Amino acid sequence: MSTLPxxxxxxxxLRSRLGRWLREPLLHFLLAGLALFGVYRLVNPAAFSPxxxxxxxxTPDDLHQISVVWLAQGRPPPTPAEMAKLIEAKVREEVLFxxxxxxxxxxxxxxxxxRLAQKMDFLAEDxxxxxxxxxxxxxxxxxxxxxRFARAxxxxxxxxxxxPDRRHERARADAARALEKLQGKPxxxxxxxxxxxxxxxxxxxxxxxxxxxxxxFGPKFARALFEQAPGAWRGPxxxxxxxxxxxxxxxxxxxxxxxxxxxxxxxxxxxxxxxDEAKRKAFExxxxxxxxxxxxxxxxxxK
Length: 303
What we know:
This protein has about 300 residues and is an alpha+beta fold. The protein has 3 domains: about 25-105, no CATH class; about 110-150 and about 255-285, no CATH class; about 150-250, Chitinase A, domain 3 (Roll), CATH 3.10.50. The protein has 11 helices and 4 strands, in the order H-H-H-H-H-H-E-H-H-E-H-H-E-E-H. Strand 3 (about 235-240) and strand 4 form a beta hairpin.
């Protein structure tokens, strides 16, 4: 009696494929993600509830602001199609913003905190918007704050340079001898420059402040220069480069301009001060509503 060959298990290939799927890492990842999503939904049901206000209202002011931003980029007025895209972009921004708030993405975010604090600071500044001061009020404020508007002294000078690299220890003595030759001679005396050495920068510096001179030659040179009287060769004066003979063409001492010269500047300073004061008071009022709790200091000797 003949026998038929054994028939294979028809479910075998299916079980084999199922086993491979169950061992697939991607499937494990998806299942873990679904589990986390479910847990989050249980813990934060409000994030998946319909919003309390599901309306996004675009006002005429919104349309005006959209147009202003568009035109500020140097473009022609938006076409109806372009305006529709701009409105949709604003709606998209609002939707994402509301959903982010619903998910609590604004919590414990340093960047968001700083941005909101900055906006509150701007708000306090807006509260400090002030009417223009009267001329008498502004003049009285200027008189009480005159030193804030002092103009630093300025100098115009030329110099002859004596290089320590070339002359070594003789640089200062050579400068002193050259000064004797220049006594009583004008600033543009023939051969004055030939008495010294080539200088890598300028030979003449017009209308410089103390800080500018100090930056170029060093504070010691600047202090000595501003102590000299104009109209004659002076020196030797030491700088970071070496020794110099100097001729001061003009020296403008520190002065406070008359109110009429700088009234617009005074007004800007007055407004800035009033705004700072308004912001300070606004913050103090907000600050007074909070109590700051700091961690306790460790006991002496505690580790």
